[in-house]
Amino acid sequence: MQAVPESRQQTFEEIYGPPENFLEIEVRNPQTHGTSRNMYTSYEIVCRTNIPAFKLKQSVVRRRYSDFEYFRDILERESTRVTIPPLPGKVFTNRFSDDVIEHRREGLQRFLQIVAGHPLLQTGSKVLASFIQDPNWDRNAW
User: Fold this and answer.
1) What is the pTM of this model?
2) What range(s) does the PX domain occupy (predicted)?
């Protein structure tokens, strides 16, 4: 007969405390700015984490689609060992309709969750945490 290894009961903290490493990224609250030809939509990025690569445990910043495009280009140049996923495609008609904005929001959130969750990018990227957490992020600084 084989001996059953002794199992220890988890403590309350282990069960209900924060996981060892967690990262929650949410893209939400789209807002359309400007008028006629100068209109654009920006999105709020909410980050909650305890991963050391991120300076802040919680942050909220606002970015527009073109910021995501610059960010993705910078990541591709910076991270030759990692395949960076695509962004949701450019939209040329009805780009300010609720359905189009929601579809883009979902795609941007999926993109950020994949990129921010990648261990090589978490430890090796200089731009990742800054894009997600710095309200004064400047695309021209990279």
Assistant:
1) 0.84
2) 21-138
Is residue 46 within 8 Å of residue 25, measured between CB atoms? Answer: yes
Instruction: Domain count for the chain, please give it.
Output: 1
**Residue 68: CATH number of its domain:** 3.30.1520.10
pLDDT at residue 88 in the model: 94
Cα–Cα distance measured from residue 83 to residue 32, given in angstroms and rounded to the nearest whole number: 31
Alpha-carbon gap, residue 5 to 62, rounded angstroms: 51
Q: What is the pLDDT of residues 61-106, one digit of tens each?
A: 999 999 999 999 999 999 888 999 999 988 878 888 999 999 999 9
Q: Does some domain include residue 42? A: yes
Q: Which domain holds residue 92?
A: 20-141
For residue 86, give both structure tokens: 């695509």
